[in-house]
Please model this.
Amino acid sequence: MLRNIAMQQDSRIYIAGHRGLVGSAIWRQLEQRGFKNLIGRTHAELDLCDPAAVQTFYSSEKPDHVICAAARVGGIVANDTRPAEFIYDNLQIQNNLIHGAYKAGVKKLLFLGSSCIYPRLSPQPMSEDCLLTSPLEPTNQWYAIAKIAGLKMCQAYRRQYGCNFITVMPANIYGVNDHYDLTNSHVLPALIRKFHEAKTTSAPTVTCWGTGSPRREFLFADDLARACIFLLENYNDEQHVNIGYGNDVTIRELAELVQKVIGYTGRIVWDSTKPDGTPRKLLNVSRLFALGWKPEVNLESGIRLAYDDYRKRMPTN
Ligand SMILES: NC(=O)c1ccc[n+]([C@@H]2O[C@H](COP(=O)([O-])OP(=O)(O)OC[C@H]3O[C@@H](n4cnc5c(N)ncnc54)[C@H](OP(=O)(O)O)[C@@H]3O)[C@@H](O)[C@H]2O)c1
Model:
């Protein structure tokens, strides 16, 4: 019989990866709703690749609910150049979290995957049913395979052991606590940093990677957090759920929006020797929207909030 015990204000909720972009947004949103017993461990305090350490943690903390927002995450170049780290770390982290949650009798677990689980040439927008219908994008296939294994593991534990483990597949996320390292970051934070630096140094041009033609969807991290909490409270099925904004922009349009928010007046140059990645990635979010959830933060407002956070966190700016 499936365990379905709702989150109470005093439930012990463990957010794995609580200092990351997504985990910190989930923490913030739960705190705002009055949840009092949030549990977090930094990477230094608990290495989620270490099965014994994770088991000890579960035995001592006894969380009621677990949110798996810890992962090795990175942009195209990081994925392409460090494939072993991406597949090994992600498989280890999720195996330890999911199996440990089962052993510890966790009431409900939410596993965060990514839209890169879908095939490179999926029909757009990508519905949940596209999974495993044709080849993956080669640059991040290692990460995608690990995430697909995590999704299947949640389903397997549900079927065999009756665990109420649900999985979500978010679009590209941006927001407060994002990463701004130019070689490892995702496209939106990389653009914020480049345009900001170009503005402060009065550089005449900004060079952006690729051709600018791929289309991408961006969701503000606090919207993702709200959707995860909504699903923890309202969803108990095996089928994974896409979480997205519901429409996409070209990278060129995105760059122009970042340029506008930052107020950079120079010119954009496109470096087409750098890889574009998948031509289009838009999630079909009709399942989520039909359940009654909608995002609150549009792209321009979200970029303004992310840029404010960037300026606060970068001491030299
Ligand atoms: N960002 C996106 O665009 C996006 C899109 C779709 C899905 N997601 C999913 O959302 C989840 C979180 O992503 P994010 O963007 O928030 O990533 P993030 O900002 O890099 O945060 C990941 C967190 O995991 C922790 N972590 C990594 N390896 C660990 C380990 N071995 N032991 C303990 N902690 C470890 C990191 O701690 P350290 O930094 O200290 O290592 C960090 O706090 C991931 O599952 C990702 O697939 C993200």
Notes: DSSP finds ten helices and 13 strands in the chain. The mean pLDDT is 95. The domain at 12-175+217-246+281-297 is CATH 3.40.50.720 (Rossmann fold).
